[in-house]
Amino acid sequence: QVQLVESGGGLVQPGGSLRLSCAASGFTFSEYAMTWYRQAPEKGRELVAAISIAGYINYADSVKGRFTISRDNAKNTVYLQMNNLNPGDTAVYYCNAVRGVGVGKLNYWGQGTQVTVSS
Predict the structure, then answer these.
(1) Do residues 36 and 89 lie in contact, with contact meaning Cβ atoms separated by under 8 Å?
(2) Fewer C-beta within 10 Å: the chain N or C terminus?
(3) Cα–Cα distance between 114 and 92 in angstroms, integer?
């Protein structure tokens, strides 16, 4: 059974930090590109950070220099270190795993973890 389980969300003051984790099971983690998305109230889902199977990384412009994505294939886990958080980062954060393209594409989602940045 495929599972992506996010953790580490919560309430933090502006300027604070959180570290999100996404633990994967039920598939070969190292063969999947991993991405963090977020969705704020009344907004669409947006890409936050992505890491390929080879370790290539890209970030949304809004989080560059503040967020760091990493993966540990031995632990089947992807992380998102979030520093200098601001209220605009408030959203539900989702973990996504993807392998392949087109009709053969495999795509899995976690259930999300809430991040609230507020004083």
Answers:
(1) no
(2) N
(3) 4
Helices (H) and strands (E) in the chain, counts: 0, 11
Q: To the nearest whole number, what is the mean pLDDT of the chain?
A: 96
- Rounded to whole angstroms, the Cα distance separating 19 from 118 reads 17
CA 31 centroid distance within chain: 17
Contact between residue 33 and residue 51 where contact means Cβ atoms under 8 Å apart: yes
C-alpha 51 chain-centroid distance: 10
Tokens of 43: 């907004």
**Calpha distance 74→83 (Å, rounded):** 25
Query: Is it the case that residue 104 has pLDDT exceeding 90?
Result: no
The type of residue at 77 is T
**Side-chain-side CA neighbours of residue 26 (13 Å):** 13
Q: What is the pLDDT of residues 25-78, one digit of tens each?
A: 999 999 999 999 999 989 999 999 999 999 999 999 999 999 999 999 999 999
What's the rounded Cα separation, in Å, for the pair 9 and 7? Answer: 6
